[in-house]
Amino acid sequence: MVDGALPAFFIVAAPGGIGFEFKLGLKSGATALVLAVLAAALLRLVSMGSSLWEIRQRWQRRAVEMEWTLPNSERIRPISIVVVVQGGREQVVEAVDRLLALDYPRFEVIVVSDGSPDGTLTCLREAFSLHPTSRIIQKSIPVQTEPTLYASTKHPRLTVVAKPETGREDSLNCGLNVSRYPLICALDTQVTLDADALIELARGFIENVTQTVAVSCLAEFYGDASTPSGSDIRLSADGIAPMYAPMQRSVSAAADQRPLDDLQRVDRATLFHVQWLLRAGVGNLAMLPGVVSLLKKAEIVAAGGYRTGYAADTLDLLLTAYRVRKSEETRRVLFLPEVIARIAPLDSLDETMQARATATQESFGIIVRHLGLTFSGQGDWRARLALPVFIVTVLFAPVWEWMAVILVDVAALAGGFTFDELVALLTLFLSIGLADSLGGLLCDEVSNRRRRSTGEILHLSLAAITHAVTFRWMMGLAQLRGMLAYISGRSIRETM
């Protein structure tokens, strides 16, 4: 028995025993995480490059199309814009006014008042001379309550729907039932559309009416530099004969450009280009507020209507539609690189982190629910790969980076890494961050989604360096919070 105990004693006491195994385990774990971070970074770079190539190809096609897709009374399809309001009466009237002034021959605006407690409905009635009305409503989607309809004597295109508070998703479905047109655009009041935004969104349906099911774009911040012209078409009064006028979208610069706004711009550009597969395969984005989508009403009905009440509800709709459609059906989804909508940046760092945590929780739930699309054989290869690539490159990558940095530091303190190796690894993490931040900004410029001056580019380049060193790490913590909230079943919205 003594002889059998001696080897175990010497393994514990000898140099290089348990201490060596502990250091080796730490170093191996840290190395594995570093390799995972590198793999995710390479996938992001490939996505950015693919995004850049795709957008430039689109611009080249647009240059030689000679505007053959002219909007006319036979080919253009009418649009129903659905807006849900839950308060904010000061902003609602202005937002509805802007929508009614859009340049498009046939559209309607449906404002759904979801039990707004601050007199929003009264404000709308006074501003637009509303009166009660009735019409046949096709109940394509079940809703919880019967709405009351109001029409406007000033604007025949406007319909206001009053109902008790039942949530955003039920309000959207109510607006969907009230709508009369085959294309649906669900909007938030915080998003402002350019005058010709509906023309740009409808272009995809004009090019291919039968197969196109969704066309989307991403709203950009107010105060950004002027952006390239989207369409030179201006409709005549009857919507038949196009009138051409050279156009440059001009956005007035904000009076006070805050550093936080520039950090959000860099972060937004990076997330936009990294999600190339999700844009190209599914036709939508995740974790980015202000995505504007135009969808076939039949597609929404086939998917069972709006279900989540999330900002990413359109992404959930499109993924659901993929699952309920037959695999042999050809579906065409488009994501426009043109900037045709605006949204205000968030006001504080705390609000930005709260928004990212909430978006991560919601997107994580949607992605997990639809992960089976990868193995279903439906959609093209981009749609099938979009979800797992998104999980690796966007959802998990920031968490892996935090874990890798912590484990590398712990392994270095335990003697697993030399000082030179530690410096090299930390430099690698910094380089990955710079590649992400500067890469997203570079893709935005080279793809011609922007027209900024040299001074503006240099200013944003400095913001990209700050983003790589600090902001992206804080957003990584926000994403970790969102993922933990989803796992625990606790809603971040309830604590905001």
Number of helices: 15
Cα(first) to Cα(last) distance is: 64 Å
N-to-C SSE string, H for helix and E for strand: HHEHEHEEEHEEHEEEEHHEHHEEHHHHH
Determine the oligomeric state from the structure: single chain
InterPro entries: Glyco_trans_2-like, Glycosyltransf_2, Nucleotide-diphossugar_trans
Pfam families: Glycos_transf_2
GO molecular function: transferase activity
Transmembrane segments: 29-53, 385-410, 422-443, 455-475
Please characterize this protein's 3D structure.
Helices cover 53% and strands 13% of the residues. The chain contains 15 helices and 14 strands. It has helices spanning 2-13, 18-65, 89-100, 120-128, 168-178, 197-207, 259-274, 276-282, 297-302, 313-324, 349-369, 373-376, 381-413, 419-446, 454-488, and strands at 79-85, 107-114, 130-133, 148-152, 158-163, 183-187, 192-193, 212-218, 220-221, 233-235, 242-244, 291-296, 332-335, 341-343. Helix 3 (89-100) links the parallel strand 1 (79-85) and strand 2 (107-114). The protein has a 9-stranded mixed β-sheet with strand order 3-4-5-2-1-6-12-8-13, sandwiched between helices. Strands 7-14-9 form a 3-stranded mixed β-sheet. It has a domain at 72-259 and 290-355: Spore Coat Polysaccharide Biosynthesis Protein SpsA, Chain A, CATH 3.90.550.10. The chain starts with a helix and ends in an 8-residue tail after the last helix. Keywords: Membrane, Transferase, Transmembrane, Transmembrane helix. GO terms for molecular function: transferase activity. Residues 80-138 form the Glycosyltransferase 2-like domain.
